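Input/output pair, single chain:
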Amino acid sequence: MFLKTSVRIVTCLIFIACFFSSCSDNITVDNDLKQYFDEYHVTGTFAMLNNGQAQFTVYNLPEYTDSAYLPASTFKIVNALIGLQKGVISGKNMVIPWDHIVRADTNWNKDLTMEQAFKLSAVPYFQEVARRIGKDTMQLWLDSLGYASKYGRAVIKNDLDSFWLDNNIKITADEQLGLVKKLYFDQLPFQNRVQDVVKDVMLQEDNSNYKLSYKTGWGFKENGNSIGWIVGWEEENKHPYFFVLQIEGPHDMDMKNIRISILKNILAHYGFFKGTK
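Output:
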């Protein structure tokens, strides 16, 4: 059993080293990060790529490479890219009127621009975007991107406006990190203008010390457990550090606050937010 586990870990390390074009000496498995998950009684994984120095740090490597979950609202990154590319979204100021269906999140119960909907993670706005894109076009782009395809082609089997929310497709943390890295460097198969708009709306905090850009996600596994995501990057002195956080906990957990607390605790642990990186 120990031999099989050791071989599996080495294989994963080699995979990561090759994927990020770095050598295995630059990979750190940091189990000290477990304290930040234990504080909130959740499990999960965190990974960060220091792009400039090709240094990769990960907590819970098997979870990072092998476990796939619904993307939830992190799919808004892809949905927005496709919508902008196809002209379904004209720009970040495009308004989709409220459908007058009253929802629990009162911030969604009004007309929203694309930027507002992205930052508020307003599901109805991007459900309408998906409907306007259409199933065939959406599927074509999923195939072109190889989105959520580590364990086979991601196929839209259920409703077009909810397949990213109902466990129809699942994505791994390493796929999420790869996506935002390519987005940052305009390496996705979209116009640069399109990628720039999405990067712009992902910016959440901007001050003299750092910029923090991310997209959150929250959904539920088949067993009812909460799944949370934060994917993005932190910039200091114009240098990007790409990260992905995935957590799992009870159905009724305070996901909105817990996931951002864990992320910021980990980033502070590594000395971020001071403008000295």
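Residues 1-11, 13-24 have pLDDT under 50 and may be disordered. Residues 136 and 156 are 9 Å apart (CA to CA).
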